[in-house]
TrEMBL record:
Species, as recorded: Streptomyces jeddahensis
GO molecular function terms listed in the Swiss-Prot or TrEMBL record: hydrolase activity, hydrolyzing O-glycosyl compounds
Lineage per the UniProt record: Bacteria, Bacillati, Actinomycetota, Actinomycetes, Kitasatosporales
Protein name (Swiss-Prot/TrEMBL): Cellulase (Glycosyl hydrolase family 5)
GO biological process, alphabetically ordered: glucan catabolic process
All residue ranges annotated as the Glycoside hydrolase family domain in the record: 27-264
Family: Belongs to the glycosyl hydrolase 5 (cellulase A) family.
InterPro entries recorded: GH, Glyco_hydro_5
Alphabetical keyword list: Glycosidase, Hydrolase
Keyword S-adenosyl-L-methionine tagged: no
Amino acid sequence: MPPVSDFHGVNWADPRDNYADDAVVPSGLSTSDSYATVYAKSEAIISGFAKLGANTVRLPVNPTSVNGPFWKSYRGAIDAATDQGFKVILGYWEADNAKDGKIDNQAAWDQMWARITSAYGRNSKVYFEPMNEPFGYTAQEWTDIAAKWVQAHGNVPRDRILIGGYKYSEDVKPVCADPRLKGTRLALHNYGFWHTDWTSVDQWKQDFKQRIGDCASRTILDEFGATMTSGLDYNGPVNGSNEIAYIQAATDTIRELGLGSVYWPGLRNGDTYSLTTLQGTGTDLSLKVNNQSGLDRLHWAWRQ
């Protein structure tokens, strides 16, 4: 299986954010789309991601999208990505009427993962992230839940499982240290807006390394991002910019430690962090880069 450094990815997100009570639907898709339409739209969007240099896409799932009627069509997005050779990370988001950092409905969650792993457990391109940002649990509670998921899905190779770090997936060390989770990959999140007063690249680098500990060989930074629609030059001097310092530190750390990385987001309509803007109509879609210097920093991180 590929080392984490081979994950050069972007998130493809719902315009409303991926917290949804109903089906979660990535930008450009619709619940009324047939499988063939989702596949054709996704083929175009994934091609756009490939032109950015990406080889991985992270897609949201929730019980409504998987256990309900949309799943039949939504599979077109996963299939279009893997057919183009992309790795696909499927991560669970809780509903927006909860947002308590806990699994909303255990039975529905179990059913969702049974359905997903039944469909894609044998597809070596598909990876599974049991929960995005499990901040409602203590470290012990979360590792217990994660260990139970790994045990329940013994047919899924451990290196195709991403276990989110503690709290807002912000610290992978407690997960990394749990022997029950040995061999799994770790999902880390870190954002510049968590420390808006930090304008030192070195301070940010130290922060990243503190969150990772000695677990870099297992860690995929599957959410990190900054404003891409305001004309900031991420290649230039920091000049007191929290976002420039943060992006430079993030991409330097990814490159230096050989982390996997999945930018937030590659595409999300209406999100100022979105690396691209969706253009076109129907299935004739393309992506326009919003900030070339931001993309340059990703290429630096990915050694491209």
